[in-house]
Amino acid sequence: MAGHGSIHWNELNSRDAAATAAWYRDVLGWTIEEMPMGDGAVYRVGKIGEDMIAGIFQMDGPQFDGLPDHWATYFQVDDADAAAKAAVQAGGSLVSEPFDVPGVGRIVMVKDALGAFLGLMTPS
After folding, report:
1. For residues 95 and 79, what is the distance between their CA atoms, to the nearest angstrom?
2. Contacting residues for 76 by C-beta, under 8 A, at least 6 apart
3. Are the beta carbons of 120 and 110 closer than 8 angstroms?
4. What's the pTM?
5. Contact 109, 99 (CB under 8 A)
6. pLDDT band at residue 2, thresholds of 50, 70 and 90?
């Protein structure tokens, strides 16, 4: 792992994750591993060999209204809460408050000073 400030993960947020996963399988040769998330939801991981390349997340629910399908890049940070404060102090804004994903880490979604969307993540 490269450490603080490096790209840690890429995730495609899609309204049809199954069809999206099939497209990346067919075009890029990814194998798709499905991971149950509870409540019947499935997170898909695109892999080349044993290497995890990216996640594919199903956007369901009103919190995603108005959002198009999009890629989200997550940057590794030493402390997601401190990074969230620093992002706001530097002219950015919070998209979400920091939250924990069991077995993954602590994440906060932000916009930079010009409005670009990104995730800041402290891995578990």
Report:
1. 17
2. 1, 2, 3, 4, 5, 6, 7, 8, 121, 122, 123
3. yes
4. 0.85
5. no
6. confident
